[in-house]
Every structure is written in C-alpha cells, then in structure tokens.
Predict the 3D structure of the following.
Amino acid sequence: TSMEYRYLGKSGLMVSCLSLGGWVTYGGQVSPEVAQMCMKTAFDNGINFFDTAEVYSGGQCEIDMGVAIRKFGWKRSDLVISTKLFWGGKGPNDRGLSRKHIVEGTDASLKRLQLDYVDLLYAHRPDPDTPMEEIVRAFNFVIEQGKAFYWGTSEWSGQQICEAHAVAQRLNLIAPLMEQPQYNMFHRDRVEKEYLPLYKTFGMGATTWSPLASGLLSGKYNDGVPPDSRLAIEDNAVMKRLRESLESEDGRVKIQKVAQLGHIAQQLGCTTAQLCLAWCLKNPNLSSVITGASRPSQIEENVKALQVVPLLTEEVMEAIEGVLQNRPVL
Ligand code: NDP
C-alpha cells in the first residue's frame, strides 16, 4: 500500500490520511509489547501520525506510546505526535482549560511521552468555565515555548471554535488549526454540516475519531460480542454502555445496517471495515482518520482501505446512503 498524506487544514504540515490512536487500547487493553508491534506496523505502512491524551488509561497510554517511539529509533521529523488536555487527574486544578492546567498538563504529558514537544496539542473538550481569552493565550504560550507546533479542539461546537478564532484575531494570537470530532457512518452531522463554514472560513482541518464506531462497523458484533474485543472489557464504563446499547432497538437497527453494508463490501471485494474507512476518506475536508487497533493484523487490513476509495463511485455511495438513511440535511 502507498499511504496518502494530506495537509492538516490550511497548514504546511502533512499527516497520513490514516492515523493511529491509543484510546482504551494502549496502556490498557493490550500489553506494551503489543502496542509497540501495532505502532511499528502502522509506521511501516506509512502512518506518521499517532494520537493520545493525558486521560487515556490514566496517563499509561502516553507512557506506552512514548516507549514505542523511543524503542524503534524513529526520526522525530518522520512523526506527528498529538496529545489532548482536559482530564489530567483528581485535583481541582488537574482538569479543564485554565492556563495553569494547560501549561502544567503539557509538561506532564511530555514527560510521560519522553518528548521535548508534541506536534499537535488539543483541548480535549470545551471548558465554558474558563474565559476564551485565557484558553487561547495559554495554547499560544505553550506553542511559543516550543512545546507544541499547532493547537486544536476536540468536540467543540462550531460557535465555540468561531469564538476562539475571534479572540485569536483580536489579540494577534495563534488560532486553533484542527478539530478532532467523532465521524463515522452512524455519526455525521458535525463533520458534514456544522463544521462546513470552519473549513472554508478558517482553513481548519478535521482529524476524526472512531471511524468504526469502536469496531461496530467492522461487522465483528453482528453475532454478539467476541470475548477478545473491546466491548467485552468488563471494568470500563464506556464499553459497558456500548455493549448494552447493542441490545436496544437502536442497536439492533445498527447491526442490521452493518450486515447490509457487509453485502456492499462483499461486492467490492473488501471487508466491511475497509468499506467504512474508505467512506470516511472520501470526505475531502478530513485531514486524517484516526483509527484504533488492538493487533497488527487489524492495521494491515485497515490501511488497505486506501485501495477501496477509488471503488466508491457515485452509485456505490448512493447504495450506502440507501442503507444508512441518515444523510444530513444541509
Ligand atoms: P475505531 O472506531 O476504529 O475502533 C477501533 C477498534 O475497533 C480497535 O481497537 C479494535 O478493537 C476494532 N477494530 C479495528 N479494526 C478492526 C478490523 N479491521 N476488524 C475488526 N475489528 C477492528 O476507533 P477508536 O474508537 O479506537 O478511535 C480511534 C482513535 O480516535 C482513538 O485511539 C483516539 O486516539 C481517538 N479518539 C478521540 C476521542 C476524542 O474525544 N477526541 C474519543 C475517542 C477516540 P478490538 O480488537 O478490541 O475489538
């Protein structure tokens, strides 16, 4: 496979259009050795962008991903590393987007990652309790200090992002460059509708998460929850909720749709996961689709989604819309 690299929004930075993140998996579900093998498989397939967060597995995700980065002796300039700040610990000042937490949280993340800087630093959620001027100033400061190159937002509303840009413009500070929203066949409105003006007006890039809806869109849950899958994890509240949601009416409808998508994939000669990833990649406003993987074989399968993109003709895209029935009304 030859990887495709896209500009991150209007910036001059190039990110692989498929990237790899560590949520739930690295520092948690799998051993450091498996995390290393996954990252190596990704890198060997041209993935240069790796995503983590201070909150993932209580900091252990950054530690395990940092060890992998060191171990293989990759050139720093060949990597784009991102982390996210918001939930840094239990203390009243270990969370949110105060200047104190942005500055201290960045330092703590860099220490866990064993890095001098990250390429991308995200505000993991909006913080309505901190003034926007304080937030923009703090990210600007961290960038001026050389501890990050670009900053962005994750799951902010279009309006909150516009406010950040207005503050940055007024004070001549660095504005957010990218958003990290959820985007998959079951979750479309923000990326396809709400954010449209942001790509145009501000040149923002989207780096999207959960392209397989935590694995649901691979078809692996069509006949129940396999014991070696993420949703089988017992002591994780998010996975418990997802597992239970499969039993609901909404969950059953989704599983039926995944099975129908499986037929489309079969006709194209690809897997359901590849079809769903390729469908994300078709969207030109996406700079990178952040994938997840608990084993190297999933990465090998998922990077081949690049070869499926050209097979998604208008006719196939319409067939997919026919299954999904959730096209955003613009
Ligand atoms: P996905 O929806 O793609 O789910 C990935 C999981 O699905 C894998 O860990 C694996 O789990 C399973 N899987 C992947 N490929 C296959 C395959 N080919 N066949 C079968 N199963 C497969 O992405 P994530 O939910 O992991 O999100 C990706 C990244 O996005 C995260 O790591 C994180 O960096 C970021 N993210 C950001 C958020 C934010 O708020 N900003 C929130 C959530 C994620 P298993 O083998 O255990 O079944």
Remarks:
- The CA atoms of residues 4 and 17 lie 6 Å apart.
